[in-house]
Amino acid sequence: MEVIWIAIAVSLLAANSEAINCYQCTYTSVAAENDCLGPKPAAKNLLRCPAGYDHCSTTTSKMNIFGTETESIVRNCSEIYISRQCISVEGVKGCTSFCSSDGCNSGNGSSVMRATILTFAVAFFAALLVSKW
User: Fold this and answer.
1) Is residue 38 pLDDT above 90, yes or no?
2) Which of 7, 32, 77, 129 could disulfide-pair with 49, CB 3.0 to 4.6 Å?
3) How far apart are CA 23 and CA 20, in angstroms?
4) How would you label 50-89 residue by residue, b for 16+ Cβ within 10 Å and e otherwise?
5) Could you tell me the end-to-end alpha-carbon distance of the chain, in angstroms, rounded to an integer?
């Protein structure tokens, strides 16, 4: 039982030991620049967040402007973490999601779970080795 508590403590410390890196960029379907689009934005957009910004966010929106459907994606750092939020008002649809690991706002959603599992697994095996000595 002690090994599990050590593993949990180590994984929590490892997860919070450094500032998070989030993709920080904006895409709009009316602009020529698209290095923020897709499941993996350009590496140049993965930047360290300021102190106190411990989460990443992705906001997507669709709207019709003068008969043209416009899409946008905003990826950034966030001080808050809440469950996915979506709205739809007068033809404008938008969703914002949050996550808490490096590069997790890339758009594929699975990186959060992989990072959590990997961190816990490493901490568990480290604690197991320590307890054997």
Assistant:
1) no
2) 77
3) 10
4) eeebbbbbbbbbeeeeeeeeeebbbbbbbeeeeeeeeeee
5) 16
Which amino acid is present at 54?
Answer: D
The structure tokens listed for 1 are 């039982």
Pull the structure tokens for residue 33. Answer: 């620049």
Q: Which residue has the tokens 């106190």?
A: 52
**Pair 119, 15: CB distance under 8 Å:** yes
**Nearest by Cα to 71 from 79, 80, 61:** 61
What 8-state DSSP symbol labels residue 38? S
**Average of per-residue pLDDT across 41-68:** 94
Given the structure tokens 């966010």, which residue do they identify?
57
Which of these, 36, 43, 93, lies nearest to 64 by C-alpha position? 93
